[in-house]
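Sequence, please.
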């Protein structure tokens, strides 16, 4: 087995292999050793080469860094970058439509991690389903892995690094032609097989290619990378999208359980329980098309100057069709059973069986959306070795990210077909899957197309565009002698612009539109329901609804348009045809101007006879914030459906607020070589993460959709301070063989200015609501019931339609306003990271095992209902969880096999549910197995098979109690079969 001769040799190898983070003093010594020939060449390829590169990057770094390197040009370990990142110690991922999307590092979620491309801060564009997105998180699904040569995850901070990630800074490194002299070209073709689709293509293509060549004695280089991928897939899910209503004790709150013996294990005065607001079965079909391209030109007229010009483009288009079977619950529990409570502090009870007598609609929602996410980046870089001691670099880039709808149907929509024959709904929550059983009116034998029409519709338009213009000037000065071996310095100027906007065109005809005769029976198609969930525990319940009906959105839109035309109605901004509203009701525009400067000294000396490397630096950042928001003006509240209330808009205006902050951010990295290839490290740094765009919006907005007991709104705070984290790391590593090492580390992060959400209740805009007013009281008295649907119909019949609040007569609607606030107290997160990477000599076998524990000093209290006058929501950091990975690989002769297992423990993902209630959402523990098999026919041709989630694991989320389902998602295995040819 080949071993390293000494530690500095490892640094030289990391330089040879392309690691970019070696300190200047190490680089100087490595050059001397290379000239003297004082090293052994390690001949490795494929997986072993990739692991060796990554290990040497980790070893050479002054702080805590992990990396993944491509096995060859255009050959990254996973097709999806996020799927590769989850193999790194302390990194876990969120998935969207079965693919890796965003990352969490050491328990800090996507918005706490900064992503750079070749050291440049990248913009990100995100869209939300029912609001304007405020997220800064980067979606790795947009970028193909073929153009990436390495991914570096910096878990400790250096003064030279941009700020924004208190979890980590992730740098994506792309290949450069002058780093790969000569002519190189590869082409890869895959057939992607996704068994989850019911209607799409069973095999879809992925084609990628790379061409790289240098000319004129390797002074000029060009590299072109292209990738095109299509994927058809599907997903079945069950969701309580509108959350749970939480109740403490035996009070008579909305939705309280009756105390007439109809429920088993009735809650006591000190128990906490919840009742569901709805349940939906969703059946999604999606088509994803990803296009990536990159052009890189390099020119090095001499050994001292290298210039680079690059353009990167990516676009992800997603088309999604959804069919839905849903029921609403309006707080009318009929019978059932709850888990036993203790009637004492901490007792939270969950439903086993819950039956609700809400009538009458069974929703058969249909959705059809097309969205795009487009990213562009143009950059120029020049490196100049001014003298033997001074290196200077200028880097400029202009980058944009934009996401929105691809057509006028919006980014999220629903046209709800409906049957008004429901009299009771029973749900069995005793297992992972909620079994819904609907009781229909006498004489009705289940869903019948002849009795179906439509009710309300909603077309939502979410849009975001981010732009970053950045100039960076960096320098390194090397000293020939002395303790200080080099000084790094630099200055950065950046302007970041973000626009996030949203509109909704909603028809509140939830009581029905037209008659069943207006809708041809043949536009509704019967579909088997149980078979869509046959992999999920509990889905074989005998009482599960046997079928649902699907429909084509255009058929429903056509039928609705015909009714509207016949009635002479305008039903949307497009007249008689349903569409989204291109005029935004929420429009937030934020400009952040940042100036930063840093100075870092790199030192080398001996301590107790041991070589020591120290990097000490200070970074100063000043940020000015200008935030402008469109603020709608509201006049009254309209009661439009049994549980649907809308704020009526009358005009709008923009308001602008300003804020800002500055920081001095120190960093200190210490590394000592205790003996040959055994290191100990210690790091201290201060870092920040900036607030979300919604938190710093320049005004107050009210959500148009309200409920009987109030509405919701959001208030911005441009003077909100960012998260400030004080970070301490201790670690030790032993590199005991070729590609083999063991490490253990401890980290502690103390976070100040914790940004959470708090709410206050106010009668903003003084909006009168007809609910609870004198007309409402008259209706209740006349009808002898407070059933919402019956009262609404009485008001329509006796006072006219629409039913709106009357100023001076009706009560004012309370608005629960959510506002971002800084916590006065600190929060701490700490944990351990352990990793082993071992190559079993020349056997071809190797193994990687790592485990990360994360603990916070604050956990969510499920017993705390977060209700009451002046009660604030709980401040809890989201995403904290333990993670583990195990990879077994074999690489010898023509064969390369890799089996990877990834596990993430349960974590808290949110503290406000889909209805705005202060309820937690926990994502349950999840693990997944992926398999890659490659066969090298010859040195140019490679065949491969990839399997993702080969055991077909599903994902589940719950609320305060495991029986309080928030969502369960059936995820099927995917397989890729392909060929790769190198020229």
């Amino acid at each position: 087995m080949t071993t390293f001769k000494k530690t500095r040799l490892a640094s030289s190898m990391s330089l040879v292999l392309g690691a970019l983070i070696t300190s200047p003093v190490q680089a100087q010594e490595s050059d001397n050793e290379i000239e003297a020939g004082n090293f052994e060449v390690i001949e490795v390829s494929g997986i072993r080469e990739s692991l060796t590169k990554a290990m040497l990057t980790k070893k050479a770094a002054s702080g805590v860094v992990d990396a993944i390197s491509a096995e060859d040009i255009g050959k990254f370990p996973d097709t999806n970058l996020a799927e590769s990142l989850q193999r790194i110690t302390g990194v876990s991922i969120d998935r969207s439509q079965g693919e890796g999307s965003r990352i969490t590092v050491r328990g800090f979620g996507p918005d706490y991690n900064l992503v750079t491309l070749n050291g440049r801060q990248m913009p990100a564009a995100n869209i939300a389903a029912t609001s304007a997105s405020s997220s800064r998180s980067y979606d790795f699904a947009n970028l193909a892995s073929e153009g990436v040569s390495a991914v570096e995850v910096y878990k400790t901070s250096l003064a030279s690094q941009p700020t924004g990630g208190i979890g980590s800074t992730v740098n994506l490194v792309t290949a450069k032609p002058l780093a790969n002299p000569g002519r190189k070209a590869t082409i890869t073709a895959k057939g992607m097989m996704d068994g989850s689709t019911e209607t799409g293509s069973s095999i879809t293509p992925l084609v990628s290619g790379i061409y790289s060549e240098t000319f004129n004695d390797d002074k000029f280089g060009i590299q072109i990378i292209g990738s095109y991928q299509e994927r058809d897939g599907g997903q079945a899910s069950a969701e309580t999208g509108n959350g749970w209503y939480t109740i403490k004790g035996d009070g008579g709150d909305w939705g309280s359980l009756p105390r007439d013996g109809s429920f088993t294990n009735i809650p006591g005065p000190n128990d906490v329980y919840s009742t569901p607001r709805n349940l939906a079965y969703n059946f999604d079909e999606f088509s994803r098309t990803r296009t990536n391209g990159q052009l890189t030109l390099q020119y090095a007229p001499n050994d001292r100057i290298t210039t680079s010009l690059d353009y990167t483009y990516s676009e992800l288009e997603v088309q999604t069709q959804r069919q839905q079977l849903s029921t609403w619950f309006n707080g009318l529990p009929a019978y059932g059973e709850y888990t036993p409570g203790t009637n004492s502090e901490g007792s939270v009870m969950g439903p086993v069986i819950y039956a609700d007598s809400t009538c009458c609609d069974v929703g058969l929602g249909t959705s059809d959306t097309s969205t795009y996410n487009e990213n562009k980046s143009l950059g120029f870089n020049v490196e100049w070795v001014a003298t033997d001691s001074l290196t200077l670099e200028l880097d400029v880039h202009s980058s944009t990210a934009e996401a929105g709808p691809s057509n006028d149907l919006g980014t999220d929509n629903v046209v709800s077909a409906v049957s008004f024959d429901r009299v009771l709904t029973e749900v069995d929550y005793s297992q992972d899957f909620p079994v819904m059983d609907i009781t229909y009116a006498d004489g009705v034998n289940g869903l019948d197309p002849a009795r179906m029409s439509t009710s309300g519709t909603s077309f939502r338009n979410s849009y975001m565009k981010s732009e970053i213009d950045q100039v960076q000037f960096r320098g390194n000065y090397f000293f020939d002698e002395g303790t200080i071996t080099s000084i790094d310095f630099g200055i950065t100027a950046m302007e970041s612009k973000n626009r996030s906007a949203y509109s909704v065109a909603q028809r509140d005809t939830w009581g029905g539109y037209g008659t069943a005769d207006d809708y041809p029976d043949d536009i509704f198609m019967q579909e088997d329901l149980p078979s869509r969930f046959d992999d999920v525990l509990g889905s074989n319940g005998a009482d599960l609804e046997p079928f649902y009906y699907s429909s084509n959105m255009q058929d429903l839109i056509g039928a609705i348009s015909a009714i509207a035309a016949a009635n002479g109605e305008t039903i949307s901004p497009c007249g008689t045809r349903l569409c989204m509203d291109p005029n935004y009701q929420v429009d937030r525009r934020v400009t952040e101007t940042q100036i930063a400067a840093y100075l870092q000294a790199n030192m080398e000396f001996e301590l107790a006879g041991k070589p020591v490397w120290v990097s000490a630096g200070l970074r100063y950042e000043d940020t000015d914030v200008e935030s402008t928001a469109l603020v709608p003006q509201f006049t009254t509240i309209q009661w439009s459906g049994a549980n649907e209330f809308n704020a009526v808009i009358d005009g709008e205006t923009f308001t602008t607020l300003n804020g800002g902050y500055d920081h001095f951010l120190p960093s200190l990295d210490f590394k000592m070589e205790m003996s040959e290839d055994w290191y100990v490290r210690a790091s201290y740094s201060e870092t920040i993460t900036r607030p979300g765009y919604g938190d710093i919006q320049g005004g107050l907005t009210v959500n148009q959709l309200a409920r009987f007991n109030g509405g919701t709104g959001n208030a911005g705070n441009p003077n909100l301070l960012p998260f400030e984290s004080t970070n301490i790391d201790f670690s030790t590593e032993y590199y005991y063989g070729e590609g083999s090492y063991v490490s253990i580390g401890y980290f502690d992060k103390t976070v100040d200015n914790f940004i959470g959400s708090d709410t206050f209740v106010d009668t903003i805009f003084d909006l009168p609501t007809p609910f609870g007013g004198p007309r409402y009281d008259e209706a209740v008295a006349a009808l002898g019931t407070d059933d919402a649907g019956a009262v609404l119909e009485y008001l329509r019949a006796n006072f006219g339609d629409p039913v709106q609040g009357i100023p001076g007569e009706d009560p004012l609607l309370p608005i629960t306003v959510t506002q971002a606030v800084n916590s006065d107290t600190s929060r701490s997160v700490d944990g351990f990271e352990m990793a082993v990477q071992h190559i079993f000599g020349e056997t071809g076998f190797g193994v990687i095992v790592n485990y990360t524990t994360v603990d916070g000093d604050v956990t969510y209290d499920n017993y705390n209902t977060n209700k009451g006058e002046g009660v604030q929501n709980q401040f809890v950091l989201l995403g904290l969880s333990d993670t583990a990975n195990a990879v077994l690989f074999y690489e010898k002769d023509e064969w390369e096999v890799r089996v990877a297992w990834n596990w993430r423990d349960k974590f808290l993902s949110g503290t406000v549910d889909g209805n705005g209630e202060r309820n937690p959402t926990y994502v349950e523990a999840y693990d997944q197995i992926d398999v890659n098999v490659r066969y090298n026919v010859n040195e140019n041709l490679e065949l491969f098979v990839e399997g993702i989630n080969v055991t077909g694991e599903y994902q589940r989320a719950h609320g305060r109690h495991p029986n309080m389902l928030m969502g369960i998602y059936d995820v099927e295995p995917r397989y890729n079969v392909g060929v790769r040819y190198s020229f």
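Confidence is low (pLDDT under 50) at residues 1-44.
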